[in-house]
Amino acid sequence: MISLVKDAFSCEMLKVYCQSITAYCDGRKGGVVLCDSVDISAAVASEKALMTPIIRNADQKSISSISAEVEDGNDVEAVRTSSGGNNVVNEENSVGPCCTLSAAPSPSQVDQICKAMTLECFKLTTELLGSLLQTICKVDDVDSTFERLPDCLVIDILSRLPPHSFLRCRWVCRRWRALVSSHDCFTTLHDLCRASTPMLLIRDNFAKHRPGLYVFGENKKWWKKAAFENLHLRPELMINKHWKDNVVNLSYCCQGVLLFASISWQNIYYVVNPVTQEEVTIRHTLYPGYVSALYFCPYTRQFRVLYTQVRGSSCQYFVYIFKMRSWRKIRSSTSFNFLSSGGNPPVVNGALHWIVYHDLERKTITPCENGIMVFRMDKEEFSAMPNPGSSPLCKSKEAHQTMTLSVKNDRLSFCNLLFPKYTVDIWILEDYEAQTWMKRKMITDSQVNDTAMTVAATNIITMSHTSSPQAMTPAEKPKKFMVLILKGGNRRCSSTLQLNVFNDSHLKKLQR
Amino acid sequence: MVKLKSNDDKEFEVEEAAVIQSEMIKNMIEDGCATSVIPLPNIDSKTLIKVIEYLNKHINMGKAAETGEEDDLKEFDEQFVNMGWEELFDVIMAANYLNIHELMELCCQSAADRLKNKSVRAVREMLKITNDLTEEEEQEIINDAPWAFEGPEIDDTVN
Description:
The complex is a heterodimer.
Chain A: H1 2-6, H2 8-20, E1 23-26, E2 31-34, E3 40-41, E4 44-45, E5 49-52, E6 54-55, H3 63-71, H4 73-83, E7 98-101, H5 107-141, H6 151-158, H7 163-168, H8 174-181, H9 183-196, E8 199-204, E9 212-217, E10 227-230, H10 238-244, E11 248-254, E12 257-262, E13 268-273, E14 278-283, E15 289-297, E16 302-311, E17 314-321, E18 326-329, E19 338-340, E20 347-348, E21 351-359, E22 372-376, E23 381-385, H11 390-393, E24 403-408, E25 411-418, E26 423-431, E27 436-443, H12 446-449, E28 460-462, E29 482-487, E30 498-503, E31 506-509
Chain B: E1 2-5, E2 11-14, H1 16-19, H2 23-30, E3 38-39, H3 45-57, H4 61-67, H5 70-80, H6 85-98, H7 101-115, H8 120-127, H9 135-144
Parallel strand pairs in B: 1-3
Antiparallel strand pairs in B: 1-2
Helix pairs in contact in B: 3-6, 6-7
């Protein structure tokens, strides 16, 4: 017994069992009947006697007190006195302690009996509960509709709610508050959204009053109309004040987190999460320069801002760490002098990619051999690689302005709009290490022709899949290849704005 | 044909083309583990019937778009999710277990649509959740984002 009690785990087990053994199945009443108290009984056979002592209210006693009670000499005395004689079962008090003894045991025998008894006791309870617990659990489940769902499924459902409803979920109960508040949940939440329905954030520069941000939800069920909703930002946020004065620009977005640049003050950036309505104001003294990327580092599971500081003919790069609220200089072994394109850099193979516009050192030469700039997130290193089909296509620096990079099926894809024919070349990087590009498509669509086309222009900022940072762990990626084309901007205001989704080879106009 | 067995020991025969929409069973078939009956200890027969109904209807999902049956499918989906919360969660758990992506999407979206714009009180009542937050905690949450708790779009009805 002593050794048993010393074993904390079995002790706890027995305690739990004792506490939960407060119910039994009653076939006639058709369910589980709760008991007020639990008595444990054990039958112990010794050479001369069969003892069946009962420990009353075992559910309220600790294992040590049960142990003590069993081992207690007084209790054993009581058991002994109640026996009355040889082979007599105490019938007067059938629920009380009863004991059948052929002869009064000696003290050493009592000790032995006690040891055997507690072991029996443990075994008995365990077996009894195995069958009982099942029934009890089943009955408990009935009235907790939502609680049966595992956390991941609850998040899956809640993540589909609009921001207002989503935030209100925190008020429902503690479990939901924990789910909705945790930052990890929010990241996974957006991963989920990405896999199912791409969510686009659209800036409408042609609105009559002031540029607005709209959330565009292309419904999974494509037969439903696409819907636009105004992006809600809490009035208290700093960004809102500047937004009204039209002095901020939406520059980057990553997993639903947006980075705004202030037009009036070059050293201020606002990073906003529209779902949690959190805001961080970033200041720096690193200008002249510009933010090159807002990215989510999968290794540290943190958001980062990459800043390029231009110093004459060379660049210095800095990373902003939100946790520390500070900038850190990147010590890249190779120095880079390229100015990259704007827009969210696509993430493939754990690295960010940009099209290079200018070579700061050799300003007259087109940067074809180093057409694509690469930033590895794990080592924080820069490198470069040539863009596909470079030599015949690229005759001027301007040609690079029509090039864009995106992600298709976890591979880097390169898209080039060729003037004056308005054809679009699409290349896919088949082998990342060997840098082998495959030309996939050339699109000459008359519909493309008459649109004032800006492929992946800054007007359209995908909140979701094209800037997926989870390249190292290939998650489910959209199978469609989407090129968004905005047209009608030069006609009237936002009401004529048309959205075309380019889906492999069919140009589909989205209903509004 | 593939035989599935629910946790109350009822067997169902399903066409392989239908059942491979479940990633889990598809993998089992590919690995050659589905020669006899596949036991599904987490799914009762009532839910399994529902899931099979869905699988059979969506057997030719890809072709539907070409043959103009999409309206038919849409109608079926709308009818399909027209069920009680209990049943819906059973189907969600089954779809999650069997890894049927489309069904998960349909049901989770339906659940979200029902909760959309509902007041906190309505959500609690619909899902039978007991409020275990203290008053101070509640106030803290409301103070955090007051705009989320007011507005004309909040729907207090339970249905």
